[in-house]
Design a protein that fits this description.
The protein has about 325 residues and is mainly alpha-helical. It is about 75% helix and about 5% strand. The chain has helices at about 1-10, 25-50, 60-90, 95-130, 135, 140-165, 180-185, 195-230, 230-260, 270-295, 295-310; strands at about 15, 95, 175. The longest helix has about 35 residues, at about 195-230.
């Protein structure tokens, strides 16, 4: 009776470990987090509106790129308001329903980021390796199929992950993580989580094999095509574009995989786990618009022109 009572009388609010900062450090962290969030909102919105409002940028490469700032805004908005509130008010509680919502969208963000980068790698592969067939392959219909596959497959996979989680009884309310995600929520369950663990591992493995495999294949083919190309300018431009893309993908992969693995390493420092977990959510949305927006001349020029027209127009 007592164990059943513990399951059904568990608090509807969850208690988070937090960052354990002094008031002075918490204030500094709050200011930095606020500035970072403003930069993410501005830069990603700038990239978004630049592509949407310039018809000359309505090409397959830029349409696929459009999904990246949308996804970055989803991920950062799931995290930053919660962290800012915690730093400012030292709040350590969150309702279970809000926690589930945050965790769901954080996982959607993480999987979407990998899928979008894979779709962009495929686009570059067709553009560089099969330039004569690019317009016939990357039609609007084919493009919409790729984008639909990215989002619908992602939402379906993550929905199943959380359906499996919500079927289990919860008998704990203390989260040892700075934000909510599936592994931290599974630690609150007092039931057999074998199915959840297997599904989570299979999901991670399949996504990694597919995305990393496709990206390695496409970039290998791109490298071969670049070195076969006699034009040094074309080769340099292709390598620069693909190089920055690869850096973003590797950064996201390393941070994400470390966060996943850290749950299975008991001796790891909790402060290091928190830092990497937050960095995995902060760095990509901050870096992506800089790499794909400001470093892309066409987007940069059109964006600045659009910004001047809207802000400084008399």
């Amino acid at each position: 009776m007592s164990s059943a009572s513990n399951v059904y009388n568990v608090s509807s609010d969850l208690f988070l470990q937090g960052f354990d900062l002094s008031p002075e450090k918490a204030t500094v962290a709050f200011v930095l987090a606020t500035l970072n969030y403003i930069i993410i909102l501005f830069c990603n919105s700038f990239l978004l509106f630049t592509i949407i409002n310039n018809k000359c940028l309505h090409e397959p490469m830029h349409i696929l790129l459009l999904n990246l700032p949308i996804n970055d805004l989803i991920g950062s908005t799931c995290l930053f308001p919660h962290i800012m509130q915690e730093l400012l008010f030292d709040s350590r509680t969150m309702s279970f329903s809000i926690c589930i919502t945050q965790a769901f969208f954080i996982h959607v963000y993480a999987v979407s980021a990998v899928f979008i980068l894979t779709a962009m790698a495929y686009d570059r592969y067709v553009a560089i390796c099969q330039p004569m067939r690019y317009t016939t392959i990357m039609t609007n219909v084919h493009l919409m199929k790729i984008i639909s596959l990215v989002w619908l497959s992602n939402l379906t996979l993550i929905a199943v992950l959380f359906i499996l989680l919500l079927r289990l009884p919860r008998c704990r309310s203390y989260l040892t993580h700075p934000y909510c995600d599936n592994p931290s929520l599974l630690q609150l369950v007092c039931a057999d989580t074998t199915i959840n663990n297997i599904y989570g591992l299979v999901l991670t493995a399949v996504c990694q094999v597919l995305t990393v495999g496709l990206i390695l294949y496409t970039y290998l083919q791109i490298l071969i095509a670049c070195f076969r190309n006699k034009s040094s300018d074309t080769r340099s431009k292709s390598l620069q574009t693909c190089g920055t893309h690869l850096v973003v993908f590797i950064l996201f992969e390393c941070l994400g995989l470390f966060t996943i693995i850290s749950y299975r390493i008991k001796d790891i420092s909790p402060h290091l786990r928190k830092f990497i977990a937050v960095a995995a959510m902060i760095l990509p949305p901050t870096v992506n618009p800089v790499i794909y927006g400001l470093r892309t001349k066409e987007i940069r020029v059109k964006g600045i022109t659009f910004f001047k027209q809207k802000v400084f127009a008399s």
